[in-house]
Amino acid sequence: MPSATYELFREAILGEKQVVCVYQGYHRELCALIIGHTGGKERVLAFQFGGESSSPLPPGGNWKCLDLAQVEDAALRDGPWREGSRHRTTQTCVEDVDLDVNIHVRKRR
Hints:
The protein is of the alpha+beta class. 16% of the residues lie in helices and 44% in strands. Strands 1, 2, 3, 4, 5 and 6 form a 6-stranded antiparallel beta sheet that branches.
């Protein structure tokens, strides 16, 4: 059964909502794009556009792979959808994809 955090991130993808949370002790502002599992762990590929990180966030944001077991205080919020412009490589964050915003949400419109 999926965790409450997994369900919240899934809802964020379906509604193209922003997520604010704490991850590894840092406040994050992001948009989730792909959710599923890797090695049995719940994971999400997200684009972080605001908040804090262990290294400086580049202007415009950066891609992040999050282990959902480490996410705290997650909440949805309205705001512009952001996903960056750098799609140079195939994602390796989520092996077993449950939901991908580009395939399961946008292609159905």
